[in-house]
Amino acid sequence: xxxxxxxxxxxxxxxxxxxxxxxxxxxxxxxxxxxxxxxxxxxxxxxxxxxxxxxxxxxxxxxxxxxxxxxxxxxxxxxxxxxxxxxxxxxxxxxxxxxxxxxxxxxxxxxxxxxxxxxxxxxxxxxxxxxxxxxxxxxxxxxxxxxxxxxxxxxxxxxxxxxxx
Length: 165
Prior knowledge:
By secondary structure, the chain is α+β, with helices and mostly antiparallel strands.
């Protein structure tokens, strides 16, 4: 039996409208990405990427999206992501774009990168704090931003420890 290798693309939804993040759904993100792949790469690119393309994770509050596709076609997916200009949800269109943060071989590597990325964002936020209360709140968030051993053990369902190349 042959195992198909996948790539996981970690993205963030960037929008000026705060309602956009709260109203997005994984189905809407998937349709917008498929539409962008079809516009950029045509039927061939759409067929290559659609084989195992899924939205594995979506956090509407932080705007974090984790996309999965086959290893052979992740470059087609990544090259089409800048062409996502809007998300349509509940018959409303929200202008936004997807910023690619990381491409990894497992969900766990993307999770580790996201923790470090959030830690760096909190450090930048800590430097721009004006009051002592804001500073304490950000410091508390910064200290809680770590991957505990319990989360490591429970997050192994898609990480089988094989080579990612």
